[in-house]
Amino acid sequence: MFGACCCRSESNLVCNSLCCVLVVVNISVQLRMTSVTPLRLVSRLFKPVSPVRTITLAYVTKQCDKGSTETYNSSYEPDIGNLYTEEHLSLRKTVRKIIDKDINPHVDEWEAAGEFPIRELFKKLGNAGILGVNMPQEFGGLGLDWSYSLAVAEELGYINCGSIPMAIGVQTEMSTQALAKFGSDELRKQFLAPAVAGDMIASIGVSELSAGSDVAAIKTQAVRKGDDYVINGSKMWITNGLKADWMCMLANTGSGPVHKNKSLIIVPLNTKGIERVKIDKLGMDCSDTAQIFFEDVRVPISYCIGEENHGFLYQMQQFQLERLFASGSLIIGLETIIKETAEYCSQRKAFGYPLINNQIIHYTLAELQTEVEALRALTYRAVARYIRGEDVTYLASMCKLKVGRLARQVTDSCLQYWGGMGYTKEVKVSRMYRDFRLVSIGGGADEVMLGIICKYMETLPTVK
Amino acid sequence: MSLRVLVGVKRVIDYAVKVRVKPDKTGVVTDGVKHSMNPFDEIAIEEAVRMKEKNIVKEIIAVSCGPQQCQETIRTALAMGADRGIHVEVAGKEYEAMQPFHVSKILAKLAQEEKVDIVLVGKQAIDDDCNQTGQMTAALLDWSQACFASKVEKTDGELTVTREIDGGLEVIKVKLPAVITSDLRLNEPRYATLPNIMKAKKKPMAKKTAADLGVDLTPRHEVLSVEDPPVREAGIKVETVEDLVGKLKQSGVI
């Protein structure tokens, strides 16, 4: 979640070309299903302006021309009310059991200590199959579609802090997805299978000191020397960074344009020439977040995921699940805060009445709960489309934007009603206030999400 | 040698639930309350599954006595690795009055019918804390017993069991067939994975009644009243040591 996000400004052009790559896939889906995509809806509201979009829009426009007056066929929408089957609920039950027994009783202690026993916990989760829900079965995963991962993410919202769901999400959705999809069998055997089993801790290395949201601007270099890459540079905001066994690193490997010169490389973090420094943060207390320096670090060329210089594209795809995970994993946490605030306000009396009797309070909580349900609906819809093979960049970016903003709104509003207690470390709302503040920043800041949404709305000014 | 194991799994109110006494004091509130497998029985199942993984055991049969919902408890055991289940349906008044003695008779009868070598149960259930079923089953069958096991090893034709006793550990050898009850430190039960939960749905589960097994469920005793523990009374603050001593003398404590 601490990873960076997407390309902006100067990278605009190439990012559009990425959209094209993804959209080509999308078109084939459209043809097969002969129906409407979100793009089409958007195109009704916004006329195409960018020439790069024409590849996509040509098709959409054609369809629109054919029947521009036809009403939107709602039956095309996935039935998000039926996203969860009995199997999903069984999986959630297992997750809940681990949370109630092995996580929540210790969270306060771990938060105070500034770390949690990640190895032990990941082994337990790995044994229960939770770390490889959507991973291929031949590498120990359950091989299920992403709706099951959403079910897990949602249930992780019962954990009484933000750090642990984040650590799990980094392992399952952010560091290992590109490896699972594009890595060689040898590489997957060596690094993915142990990550799925909970024997290895993974991290994702994209952001740097001088490049966060602007991924294309990263400076870390991996230069070929014989059979090795020699890596020099540094990575910033690395969740699980101190304890991780390997990093899925984005590094410059070529001399071409900034989106075609990067590769994703697996870097074992016990390699010579690596130094890790812990970063002190506002919240996410028990999560270890590190800055990591690389000086003449050698890894075999075979540790490159997929094709060399395709790393930027792979990473952009990997970001989608990070965004969906972020929104999925916060829903229940936000609901819990609203619920606990209502309970507290029912007991706390001021001027002779329970606080909750103030209309401003019960109305505000109702308003917030409505927003959370809307976020849930948006998330389910994005996931339902994702598992059907669609490109959900547009919806996933909205999920990420909304969850970050809503998390700030819910925790801040609720904290106010807890009064002085809300400002102490005794209550959960203050921890969530600190922890969830990250969501608007990590994994692509709100502003970056807005930029992506604008691109889909065709309202982003082109850079001269 | 491959053994057959019968494991008793009891459905109890979940350990995390705050138990409430019914207003008429006939028992505790169970409607709409979360239930799970008795944690000690979970340990028993885990031990059986580990023995199977070590090829000591050939078949694991999970049995639960109680209402329809006990089948969920049996499914949990099947998801953890038991091979098949037996649900002995006991409902309503009979279930409310059922005691360890009745369950022991049912387990003993099933052990003979199924020709098992080991009966493995939790040392006690967390709802009634009786700690009787294993011992009585061994007595009814006239088998060896090893209660409060914290380690079970197979040595040819026998089991070497480490027992948790007051002030230490006792290592005993028991001949088969035997009844073993699990203590807390025997193992740490696994969480069922989704594929195993799914597989568990297809595993066979037989349904029986106490009458089928020829067990009479007539209660041997009657519950007169179930009460909440007394509520702790509020204390008072005193200003000085003299006040304190005075109050303590006054209340007859010193």
Automatic annotation (TrEMBL), chain A:
Gene3D superfamilies: Acyl-CoA dehydrogenase/oxidase, N-terminal domain, Butyryl-CoA Dehydrogenase, subunit A, domain 2, Butyryl-CoA Dehydrogenase, subunit A, domain 3. Pfam families: Acyl-CoA_dh_1 (PF00441), Acyl-CoA_dh_M (PF02770), Acyl-CoA_dh_N (PF02771). Residues 85-199 form the Acyl-CoA dehydrogenase/oxidase N-terminal domain. Its cofactor is FAD. GO terms for biological process: fatty acid beta-oxidation using acyl-CoA dehydrogenase. Residues 309-455 form the Acyl-CoA dehydrogenase/oxidase C-terminal domain. One of its GO terms (molecular function) is acyl-CoA dehydrogenase activity. The keyword Flavoprotein applies. Residues 204-297 form the Acyl-CoA oxidase/dehydrogenase middle domain. GO terms for cellular component: cytoplasm. Keywords: FAD, Flavoprotein, Oxidoreductase. Belongs to the acyl-CoA dehydrogenase family. This is Acyl-CoA dehydrogenase 6. It comes from Paralvinella palmiformis.
Automatic annotation (TrEMBL), chain B:
Residues 25-217 form the Electron transfer flavoprotein alpha/beta-subunit N-terminal domain. GO terms for molecular function: electron transfer activity. It is found in: Mitochondrion matrix. This is Electron transfer flavoprotein subunit beta. GO terms for cellular component: mitochondrial matrix. CDD domains: ETF_beta. It comes from Paralvinella palmiformis. SMART domains: ETF. Signal peptide: none annotated.
